[in-house]
Design brief:
Elements lengths: L28 H14 L32 E2 L2 H12 L4 E3 L3 H10 L4 E2 L1 E2 L9 E3 L6 E3 L15 E2 L3 E2 L1 H5 L2 H11 L4 H6 L2 E6 L4 H15 L5 E6 L3 E2 L16 H8 L1 H10 L7 E2 L3 H22 L14 H22 L3 H28 L5 H22 L4 H8 L20 H4 L5 H24 L7 E6 L2 H8 L2 H8 L1 E7 L8 E6 L2 E6 L6 H26 L2 H6 L2 H28 L1
Parallel strand pairs: 2-10, 9-10, 11-12, 13-14
Antiparallel strand pairs: 1-3, 4-8, 5-6, 5-7, 13-16, 15-16
Helix pairs in contact: 2-3, 2-7, 8-9, 9-10, 10-12, 11-12, 11-13, 11-16, 12-13, 13-14, 16-18, 19-21
Length: 596
C-alpha cells in the first residue's frame, strides 16, 4: 500500500501456495516456509537465522495462526457518513462525559477508512445482495428476490452476514418502529433522540461513532444527547476480567450473597469519576449492611406510628430543622451529581445522609419524643417528620436500590393514589425543599453531634461505662456557645453528663482529656477514671499524624505544577484543609504543654 504495488495472494483459501511459484506451489504454509529457508541455504544466500518475538494473530476459537488473504468483501464507504457524525459532536449536539473523550472520538472518525461489513459466519443478518448466475444480473434488495428480473432464472443471496457492529449501530432507532413506519413511527416521535448512552471506552469507535453515523444517515437525527464513558471494573489484581484468565465474578452469585441492591450500591460506591476500579468484594458487605440499615430504620418508624394521622410535615425543633435542611442540601447536591453523571459521588452522598445523619442522629433525637410520656402533639409532629424524611430518602435511593426501597414504600402510611409504585413517584424538588434550608440549625446540631461523639469516643477509648456520668466542658466562640447552650438538653440526655459547662471563656479542667472538633474543644474530666499518661501518649500520636498530614498538603500546595494544572476549587479546598489541620495541630500542641 505504501508503494502502490500490485496486490497478490501467495496462498489459496486453504493456506497452500498458489500456482506460479515453482517447486513451492502446492505446499502448505508451514512446509513452504521451511522450504524457502532451505532453498536460500542451498544457494548460499543464507547468512544466519535469528529468532524474533512478534505478535501473530490467531483464531479466538481454535487458536490457529491467521494469514493475510485478499478476498472479495462488502464495505461501507464512510467518507459520506463521518462528516455529519463529527459535526454533531463539534457543535455540541452530542456531549461526552468526561469531556476529554470528545477529541478521541473525533480523531477516530478522522482516521476512519472504509468499513468491511461482511463476515463468513453461520449466524447473523444475511447481506441483502442477490445474484443471477445465468445472466450475471446482481443487485441489492430489502425484499427477498427469488427470480431474476432480467432472465427469470433463480437467484441466490450472498452467503455472508453483516458485521455485528453494523446491526448494533441501528439499535437506537430500529427498536422504535423505524423499520415499519420510519421517522413518523409514534415511538420515534415520542422518544427519539434518546438522552443518554453509557458505554465503555473500548467500543467508542466500534459502536458509539457508528450509531451516530447510522442515525444521521437513516433518520437525520442524533441518536442521543450525552455519552458517558464509564469506568471499567477490573479484577482485584488490576487486570481486565475475562473468561480465559478466570478472574471474573459471577453477578448472580454476588446477588445471592449481597442482594441485587447491595451489589449495585457497592459497585457504585467504588466509582470515582471515570477512573477504572479494582473490584473489591469485601466492600459489598458494607452495602449489604446498608440495605439492612434501611430496613431497620423503616421498621423503627413503622413501630412508632401508634395514633399516627397523616398531615403536612412541620419541622419545629432544631433537630427537625437540621434534618430538613440537610435533606434540602442533599437533593440539590444529588441533582448536580446526576446532571454531571457523577454516580459514585451521588451514592456516597446518599450513604452519608441516610446512615450517618438520619439513622445515627435524627432517629436518636426522635426517641425521646416518641416515648410513652411524650406530648401527643409533639409526638404526632415527630411521626409526620419521620415519615416525610423517610419517604423522600426512599425516592432518592430508588434508582440505585430499587427493590428494598419499593418494598418499604408499599408499607408507608402515605397517599399512593397518584404513584402506586415508587418508580412513578415524583423526584424530590430541590427548589421546593430549599425553604427548609437553615444554616443556624445545621451548625447547632453539628456541634451537638460533635460533642456527643466526643463523649462517646472518650468512653470507648478509656473503657468508661456508659452508665458513668462525666463532667464535660465545651469551649467555643460566643455565637457557637449560644447555639450549643440552647441544645443543652440533647447533650445531657445523649451524653449522660454529670455536669455540662459551655462558653467562650471556660478553662480546661485539670486532669481532663480533650477532643477537637470544627471550632470546638470538648474537655472531659478523667480524674480518678483513667491513666493520664495514656492521654499524653494519645495526644503525641495525634500531633505526629496532624503534622504529617499538614506537611503533605504544604508540599502539594507549594508545587507550581499542581497549582498550574489543578482546578481553582480543588486548590482552594486543599488550602482550607491545610488551614484546618494547622489549627488542630496548634491546639493539640497547646494541650500537650498544659499536660506537661
Amino acid at each position: 500500500e505504501r508503494n502502490g504495488l500490485e496486490r497478490i495472494n501467495i496462498f489459496d483459501e486453504t493456506a497452500h501456495v498458489v500456482d506460479g511459484y515453482g517447486k513451492f506451489s502446492g505446499m502448505d504454509r508451514d512446509e513452504a516456509r521451511e522450504a524457502v529457508v532451505a532453498a536460500f541455504d542451498e544457494l548460499g544466500l543464507l547468512d544466519h537465522v535469528e529468532d524474533h518475538d512478534h505478535s501473530v494473530m490467531t483464531c479466538y476459537r481454535c487458536h490457529t495462526k491467521l494469514e493475510p488473504w485478499e478476498s472479495e468483501q462488502w464495505f461501507v464507504a464512510v467518507d459520506g457518513l463521518k462528516r455529519d457524525a463529527a459535526r454533531v459532536v463539534e457543535d455540541g449536539s452530542i456531549q461526552f462525559h468526561p469531556e476529554r473523550w470528545r477529541q478521541v472520538y473525533l480523531d477516530w472518525l478522522e482516521n476512519l477508512k472504509d468499513w468491511c461489513i461482511s463476515r463468513q459466519l453461520w449466524w447473523g443478518h444475511r447481506i441483502p445482495m442477490f445474484y443471477c448466475d445465468e445472466c450475471g444480473w446482481e443487485d441489492a434488495s430489502v425484499e427477498d428476490i427469488e427470480a431474476c428480473p432480467v432472465c427469470g432464472k433463480p437467484v441466490r443471496q450472498d452467503e455472508d452476514v453483516l458485521d455485528t457492529w453494523f446491526s448494533s449501530q441501528l439499535w437506537p432507532f430500529a427498536t422504535m418502529g423505524w423499520t415499519e413506519e420510519g421517522v413518523d413511527a409514534p415511538e420515534m416521535r415520542a422518544a427519539y433522540p434518546t438522552q443518554v448512552l453509557s458505554t465503555a471506552r473500548d467500543i467508542m469507535g466500534l459502536w458509539v461513532a457508528r450509531m451516530v453515523m447510522a442515525s444521521m444517515y437513516c433518520t437525520d437525527q442524533i441518536p442521543f444527547e450525552h455519552v458517558i464513558i464509564h469506568p471499567t471494573v477490573m479484577a482485584a489484581d488490576g487486570k481486565p476480567m475475562s473468561k480465559s484468565r478466570g478472574n471474573g465474578v459471577d453477578p448472580l452469585r454476588l446477588m445471592e450473597d449481597y442482594g441485587a441492591d447491595g451489589m449495585r450500591f457497592g459497585l457504585l460506591m467504588q466509582v470515582t469519576g471515570a477512573q477504572d476500579l479494582k473490584f473489591n468484594e469485601a466492600k459489598l458487605e458494607s452495602s449489604r449492611n446498608f440495605a439492612n440499615k434501611i430496613r431497620n430504620a423503616a421498621r423503627f418508624v413503622m413501630m412508632n406510628l401508634d395514633g399516627y394521622e397523616p398531615g403536612e410535615p412541620a419541622p419545629s425543633t432544631p433537630a427537625d430543622r437540621w434534618i430538613f435542611s440537610r435533606l434540602a442540601g442533599l437533593v440539590a447536591r444529588l441533582d448536580a451529581a446526576f446532571d454531571g453523571f457523577e454516580f459514585g459521588e451521588a451514592t456516597r452522598e446518599l450513604y452519608a445522609f441516610f446512615w450517618n445523619e438520619f439513622c445515627d442522629w435524627y432517629i436518636e433525637f426522635s426517641k425521646a419524643r416518641l416515648g410513652a410520656g411524650a406530648d401527643p402533639a409533639d409526638r404526632l409532629a415527630c411521626q409526620r417528620n419521620l415519615v416525610f424524611v423517610l419517604d423522600q430518602a426512599l425516592r432518592l435511593l430508588h434508582p440505585i436500590m430499587p427493590f428494598v426501597t419499593e418494598e418499604i414504600y408499599q408499607e408507608l402510611p402515605i397517599d399512593r393514589e397518584g404513584a402506586p409504585y415508587l418508580i412513578g413517584a415524583a423526584w424530590p424538588d430541590a427548589q421546593e425543599l430549599a425553604k427548609y434550608a437553615d444554616a443556624e440549625a445545621e451548625r447547632a446540631i453539628e456541634m451537638v453531634c460533635e460533642t456527643v461523639s466526643a463523649i462517646r469516643s472518650t468512653r470507648a477509648r478509656y473503657g468508661i461505662s456508659p452508665k458513668s456520668e462525666l463532667a464535660v466542658v465545651v469551649k467555643a466562640d460566643e455565637a457557637d456557645a449560644a447555639l450549643l447552650e440552647a441544645q443543652r438538653g440533647l447533650i445531657e440526655g445523649m451524653g449522660n453528663t454529670a455536669s455540662l459547662a459551655i462558653g467562650a471563656q471556660v478553662e480546661k479542667p485539670a486532669e481532663s482529656s480533650a477532643v477537637l472538633g470544627a471550632g470546638l474543644e470538648v474537655y472531659l474530666v478523667l480524674s480518678g477514671l483513667v491513666d493520664l499518661d495514656a492521654e499524653r501518649e494519645r495526644l503525641a500520636k495525634e500531633q505526629a499524624k496532624l503534622a504529617a498530614d499538614a506537611g503533605k498538603l504544604e508540599k502539594k500546595l507549594s508545587n507550581p505544577g499542581f497549582l498550574a494544572k489543578a482546578a481553582p476549587e480543588i486548590v482552594e479546598k486543599d488550602r482550607a484543609k491545610h488551614a484546618e489541620l494547622a489549627d488542630k495541630l496548634a491546639r493539640v500542641e497547646a494541650q500537650l504543654v498544659e499536660l506537661g
